[in-house]
Amino acid sequence: MSIRHAMLALLTEAPKYGLQLRQEFEARTGEVWPLNVGQVYTTLQRLEREGHVETDDAGRDGAQKRYRLTADGEQELLSWLRTPPQAGPPPRDELVMKVQVAMRLTQVDVTEILQTHRRRIVEEMQRYTHLKADAAPEDIGLGLVVDAELFRLEAIVRWLDAADARLRSHSTLPSTAPPTDPSPATSQESRPAQPARDDAAGARR
Question: What is the SS3 assignment for 34?
């Protein structure tokens, strides 16, 4: 997420202090994306140099500055909203790279590697599902953030399952791990993926 544009968006409501901007950003995103206070002030200073924000107390030594949006800042925000994300080459995926490396090592059980990552992702999905359940119904912003994370994590689980099936069908794999399917433990861990779909469906409704 563009921190600079998030700051501009928050300032469309009213002039605000730097710490206030940080608190509101984290509150509205459920602290999914923690924000360093130094990053906030660095961003605000850059926005001020660019003429997108200005301060109420610019001339007073030691005074805490309150930032407000300028007309240029509002135009910058609207332009950013209308600009599609860049569709360049996909970023390197560390998980995919790990699996590719594991496939080359005879001393590594690739299936075990896949299941280890799957369990970790399912735990993350459980955490976000609880976060969404505890959120106030009117907190739509937080719901959008959590939905996005749940969809992203669910896609990773689907990729891990597809990778597991693809690798198992390859007879030359050096895997010696037992089948991944439904021991009582893994079956229980897999269930949070369904609430994610249910939650997402609810959000769409």
Answer: coil
